[in-house]
Amino acid sequence: MPAPAVLLSEPTPLRLRPFRAVRYDADHVGDPSELLAPPCDDLHPAQARALRRHPHHVARLLYADAPQGGARELGRWLRRGVLRRDERPALYVYQQQRGARILQRGLIGDLSLPRQAGRLLPHEDVSAHVVRQRAVHMSGLRAQLEPLLLAHRGTESTTAQLVEHVTRRAPVAVARIGQITHTLWGCDDPAELALLAGGLSVGQALIADGHHRHAACLHLSADAAGPWTSSLALLVDTETHPLRLSAIHRVLPALEPEKAARTAADVARVLPLPRGPRPPEPGELVLTGGGQAWSITDPDPRALSEALADRPRQWARLPAAVSDHLLLRHAWSVPDLPGAVAYHHDIRQATMAVSAPGSGSALLLPAISQDTVWELAGAGVLLPRKSTSFGPKPAAGLAMRVLGLT
């Protein structure tokens, strides 16, 4: 592929650097498909326990009872050849595909985490407790098993052309999880890496997934000389490969749906849906349980203002704010305790979870637009937790960052 005559001379605001990935050695373990895992947030604890039964599954590291024990197991896998570290630093082209359709394509590398505001934009709030958990796990394991998912709006055609060129080579790893094929190509040629570094003039990126892991890195990076001033990251140009954005639905196992509908009518317009549950339209929530369903719209302005008294004014138009603050907290008095609310990314799973009488209620949310997410993130407004689900998310264990190797 011919190289442009002129490279960008200015340093890139966000730097995605080559690194030596640790990967499963297919010559030793065979097809790695059975050893990778979906992102940790997408796995039910029972699924995680089942995956851990395999002696070399990455879930044994993701869900290690103690991170130091996981670190010892990781070390054994490296010594025994289950895992190996690539010989040369590389940026990795990563693609997810279903059939002939490319769902996502981006670059995996080691991202220097900017300290200045406005470069790497979070869009959701985090739980301090979960951040501490992630920090303890990452520092004890001394590894990152899955990258942050970052979205940016690129304009540099050279990068897209070079990425396309790299995908014509033989991949370094291929795995299939469910209906999705995950393919990884390594780019370690110095001239090509220079072109990629010049083309990645990313002034701003949105954290699409991995807020708690990003916050954990910032927590650990108090030691400026330590390894946590950077993070494993997947950077996706959403101009060429748009990410999917969907809602996250709430399941309330202790909430009786008919009572919930009556109480919701005190603070919003509630109408029965005789044909049963369906996906909500913009500006609507759908309450369902035991085969019944109700449409919830037009929240009472005074009640909503009271429920969001200490929140940003922009929250009044967000489905998750109406769901969690006006309904769950204000109208239904659902406690903010473990087990009180379950979160489902799949609307069918959320509906099925409460389809039997006495199984509780589900509150189905509509997706918000990506423009809204960018607008609020750019203004420094964080969305309520569990507001959005960007995807497809990267698999865990395909290209890992392991610290302290020589």
Give a short synopsis of this structure.
The chain has 406 residues and is α+β, with helices and mostly antiparallel strands. The protein has helices at residues 26-29, 45-51, 59-62, 67-80, 128-141, 157-166, 190-199, 211-220, 257-264, 301-307, 319-331, 347-353, 370-378; strands at residues 16-17, 22-24, 83-85, 91-98, 101-112, 120-121, 143-144, 148-152, 173-177, 180-187, 205-209, 230-237, 244-247, 249-252, 269-272, 285-289, 292-297, 342-344, 361-364, 388-391, 401-402.
Can you give keywords for this protein?
406 residues; alpha+beta; nine-stranded mixed β-sheet; disordered N terminus
What this model shows, in words?
By secondary structure, the protein is α+β, with helices and mostly antiparallel strands. Helix content is 29%, strand content 24%. It contains 13 helices and 21 strands. The protein is globular and about 65 Å long. The two termini are 33 Å apart. Mean pLDDT is 91; it is low at 1-12.
Indicate the percent of residues in helices. Answer: 25-40%
Shape: globular
Q: How many whole angstroms does the radius of gyration measure?
A: 23 Å
Distance between the termini: 33 Å
**Overall pLDDT score:** 91
Secondary-structure class: alpha+beta
Oligomer: single chain
Largest sheet: 9 strands, mixed
Contiguous runs where pLDDT drops below 50 for at least 5 residues: 1-12
Strand content: 15-25%
Helix count, per DSSP?
13
Number of strands: 21
Secondary-structure topology with pairs:
Elements: E1 16-17, E2 22-24, H1 26-29, H2 45-51, H3 59-62, H4 67-80, E3 83-85, E4 91-98, E5 101-112, E6 120-121, H5 128-141, E7 143-144, E8 148-152, H6 157-166, E9 173-177, E10 180-187, H7 190-199, E11 205-209, H8 211-220, E12 230-237, E13 244-247, E14 249-252, H9 257-264, E15 269-272, E16 285-289, E17 292-297, H10 301-307, H11 319-331, E18 342-344, H12 347-353, E19 361-364, H13 370-378, E20 388-391, E21 401-402
Parallel strand pairs: 6-11, 8-12
Antiparallel strand pairs: 1-5, 2-3, 4-5, 4-10, 5-12, 7-21, 8-11, 9-10, 13-20, 14-18, 14-19, 15-17, 16-17, 16-19
